[in-house]
Amino acid sequence: MNTSAGDGSTGQAAYRRSAGSPRGEARRRELLDRITDDLAINGLVDFSLRRAARAAGTTHKVLLYHFDGADDLLRQAIVQLREQRIGNALAVTTREPGRQTLGAWVRTVWPVLMRAESGLRVLDQAIGLAMYDPGRYGWLGREASRQYLPTLVSICPADWPEQRKVEVAEMILATLRGFLVEWATSGDTSGIAAGLEALIRALDREEAAGA
After folding, report:
1. How buried is residue 87: exposed, middle or buried, by Cβ count under 10 Å (0-12/13-18/19+)?
2. What residue segments make up the domains of the chain, in order of their start?
3. Which fold has domain 1-77?
4. Could you report the per-residue pLDDT of 81-108, keeping only the tens digit for each?
5. In this structure, which long-range contacts are made by residues 9-12, counting pairs with CB atoms below 8 Å and at least 24 apart in sequence?
6. Which of 11, 36, 143, 147 lies 20 to 30 angstroms, CA to CA, from 82?
């Protein structure tokens, strides 16, 4: 993946920023939406400022007016993809005390996470980059955790201590992330299905123990 401007420019304050004006912010959101859609379809391979400009129907200089270079643009696009994914997951289920267990929530959400339109491909590539070059791309994994964990903590029983909520949320995140990587690399759907059932049983036991 090439995150340079494509012409030797680094985007280091070479152009005036939109500085958060209402008009500038609206234009920035419009550009980001277009580039996020392109990433969801085409992935991170060969991502560059010039490719982003083509997807947005503008020039790399216009992008540098609104963003602090290719890495900043990539960061914001991936954050937006994750926000969409979290929203899609929450839209299909409601975690209400006495109505749905943690295990049932995971069972309902898992198919949503597997959908291509959820940005699965590019988000898997982002985690792969974080593993391959943590010095440069480790933030892709760290920011994923910061985005997902609050949602996972929120679905835990309200009467649990905060530390327990965090521990269970970390377990869910790490396990589902592992399943997604396994699916992307091996396609072992039967093994993943068996693992998912084991996770659900573990969550049921955890919740029963706290009842």
Report:
1. exposed
2. 1-77, 92-209
3. Arc Repressor Mutant, subunit A (1.10.10)
4. 888 878 877 777 654 444 578 998 899 8
5. 9/49, 9/60, 9/64, 10/69, 11/49, 11/64, 11/67, 11/68, 11/69, 11/70, 11/72, 12/68, 12/69
6. 11
133: pLDDT strictly greater than 60: yes
pLDDT tens digits for range 34-43: 999 998 888 8
Q: Which residue has the higher pLDDT, 142 or 50?
A: 50
Token pair for 177: 């992330």
